[in-house]
Amino acid sequence: MEEIIRGGSAAPLSSYTEAVDWINSLIPFGIRPGLERIQLLMEKLGHPHRKLKFIHVAGTNGKGSTCAFLTSVLIQSGYSVGTFTSPYITKFTNRFQYNGTDIPEETLLALANQLRPLVQEIAGSELGSPTMFEVATALAILYFGEVCYPDVVVWETGLGGRLDVTNIVTPIVSIITNVGHDHTDVLGDTLELIAGEKAGIIKPGVPAVSCVSQPEAVAVLKARAAATRSTLYLAGEDFSYSKGELKDGFQHFTFKGPFRGLELDIAMKGEHQLENAAGAMMALEVLRQYMAFMLEDEDVLEGFRGTFWAGRLEEVSTSPRIILDGAHNPEGAESLAKSIPQFQPYGQLNLLMGMLANKHHESYLKHILPIVDTLILTEPDFRKKMDAEDLQAIAESLRNKYAKDNLEIIVERNWGQALQKLQTITADDDLAVVSGTLYLISDVRSTLLRQPDSEKGW
């Protein structure tokens, strides 16, 4: 830690790996809500974020999928698009994309070397060292504002909104996908408190879109919109969607907004993706109606149909059939349980899960246990992992009330061996699901898709 603060500045970083290692070395500084350090960094860099147009996306679940829909449609419509998301599934560069392509490793290295002396200078002040996520955010702004100059940046919050580092920007439209119980140790333990943090991305006069449904959370968003004199487009009030049939691998739905309606198809599985797509569509309608974005219907339709987001009800193996889904909180588990029947009929459902220690495991398992025949509990390769035997104790306490009569629970701490067990017990007519923290999903995905150079992280 002392090395990070005092220097290591004698020589510039010489490789992509060194640059990523340096940024990740800031992880011990943790999550420190507040904008003081990023504001100072931006000041020292000449405020490059002020050159860019942002679509700011917050929410408990669905942020990544919503960003994927927006990016796909805007690229299809002829716009150049920067996309900043987290966590990443495959490689650190996934965070920073231009027109769907990762930042080149040599560009990331150059920008890290530009940032490093500034980070060390701030580290020596009373503000303390910028965190990993603050440096990653600053690198994204530099990339988009000084290197590739996209027409628009799709900009995902890290955690919350009000004090999240990404809130340094003033967007052209804000999106709050939904509000649920996640990161309650930082954001608060009630929906009102969590909604208040996420509503912090609503800026004066900037239109906002949300699919939030709980009355207490809706009230918070409406109050924030009124205080900032921002127009709030709310699902169920200002726009809506109705589910159609599932055909040829596509979910069909009808979008109805204040300006028009449209029939849309998406390849992404799960009814919750219809909600994410509808929120993205409403934001696009705001851009089309009020900001002169040229979005032809055929491009919008093709953009939605072509959207893909790794690790979200993603089928990665056919024999045995294995689905990956990064559901890691109660609301995500509920969506997963509702979505499983969309897949082809199956015999047994075998589920492998690993979690971080700071999640709502009991509420998660209440949604999962009723649909599972065999539950394999493991531990992700990550410092904040949840002990598999502690997870087992929670599952056993819920067995009588929520589980199937024949539920088998297996504990295997080593995730690699747990995955082999899952593959072994899953017959051709069964369905296997790997769920929980994206740190586990990342490792399982790279193993099954044979990606030996895969990285992972927040």
Automatic annotation (TrEMBL):
Keywords: ATP-binding, Ligase, Magnesium, Metal-binding, Nucleotide-binding
SUPFAM superfamilies the UniProt entry points to: MurD-like peptide ligases, catalytic domain, MurD-like peptide ligases, peptide-binding domain
UniProt keyword Ligase present: yes
Catalytic activity: (6S)-5,6,7,8-tetrahydrofolyl-(gamma-L-Glu)(n) + L-glutamate + ATP = (6S)-5,6,7,8-tetrahydrofolyl-(gamma-L-Glu)(n+1) + ADP + phosphate + H(+)
Protein name: tetrahydrofolate synthase
Residues annotated as domain Mur ligase C-terminal: 311-437
Primary enzyme class: ligase
EC numbers on record: 6.3.2.17
UniProt domain Mur ligase central: residue ranges: 57-283
InterPro entries cross-referenced by the UniProt entry: Folylpolyglutamate_synth (IPR001645), Folylpolyglutamate_synth_CS (IPR018109), Mur-like_cat_sf (IPR036565), Mur_ligase_C (IPR004101), Mur_ligase_C_dom_sf (IPR036615), Mur_ligase_cen (IPR013221)
Superkingdom of the organism of origin: Bacteria
Protein family (similarity comment): Belongs to the folylpolyglutamate synthase family.
Keyword Zinc-finger attributed: no
